[in-house]
Amino acid sequence: xxxVGIVIVSHSAKVAEGAADMVRQMVGDEVPLAWAxxxxxxxxxxxxxxxxxxxxxxxxxxxxAILVDLGGAETNSEMAVEMLDDARQKRIVICNAxxxxxxxxxxxxxxxxxxxxxxxxTAEELYPQ
Amino acid sequence: MTAQKASASLExxxxxxxxxxxxxxxxARPSVKLTQLAKxxxxxxxxxTEPQGPWIDAKSPVKIMRVKxxxxxxxxxxxxxxxxxxxxxxxxxxxxxRFDEAEEEGHG
Lengths: 129, 108
Known about the structure:
The structure holds two protein chains of two kinds. Chain A is of the alpha/beta class. The longest helix of chain A is centred in the N-terminal third of the chain and has 15 residues, at 13-27. A four-stranded parallel sheet of chain A has the order 2-1-3-4, with helices on both faces. Chain A has helices at residues 13-27, 48-57, 72-82, 86-89, 99-111, 116-125, and strands spanning 5-10, 33-37, 64-68, 92-95. Chain B is of the alpha+beta class. Chain B has helices at 2-9, 28-39, 61-67, 84-96; strands at residues 13-19, 44-48, 56-57, 74-80. In chain B, α2 runs antiparallel to α4. The longest helix of chain B is centred in the last third of the chain and has 13 residues, at 84-96. Chain B is globular and about 40 Å long. The chains are: A alpha/beta, B alpha+beta. At the A-B interface, α5 of A face α2 and α3 of B.
């Protein structure tokens, strides 16, 4: 079984890319990983098309866990997920966790082969609400 | 001899320990490596910073990250399961190899 994929969605391309760098350097290459960030014109924002592309890039049969920063990153991620077919939608979760720390923790959990619900649970365990 | 045979047939707890000698101790990157290595074994594996515990699940990245043990701390490992001996040996080796970290790299 493939490992769960990780998608990072930030308003800032630099934050998203930097968080992805941390995951790659700290966790390694065993986890599919992609990021989306910025409005496409170099400004802050999130873009549904970019998020869809990132989900595609990090797609895994085991599912995908999305880490988001604020407001629109979450609503646009939800919108992107709703545009996918039912079978895929069931295998995507948005984690309620800080974007950088959550991405590293989720990827660490995923790299051990844990299922999607455990990956989400572990990411959310870091700073309980 | 009889007693030894009897104890060997039970599921033994394997133990090991190693001192953290890398500069940053058990911080973020070492925590990730320790958890990943622990997850590669089937056995139940626990870590503690005192020989009597409290024991922490070595496969939990969140719990291991919270230990924040500094350089000079001894990590104690306990494992039970079919590959327990190999798991403890590998974890002790990871700590003794200083988590393969280059010391001149940034902290964490």
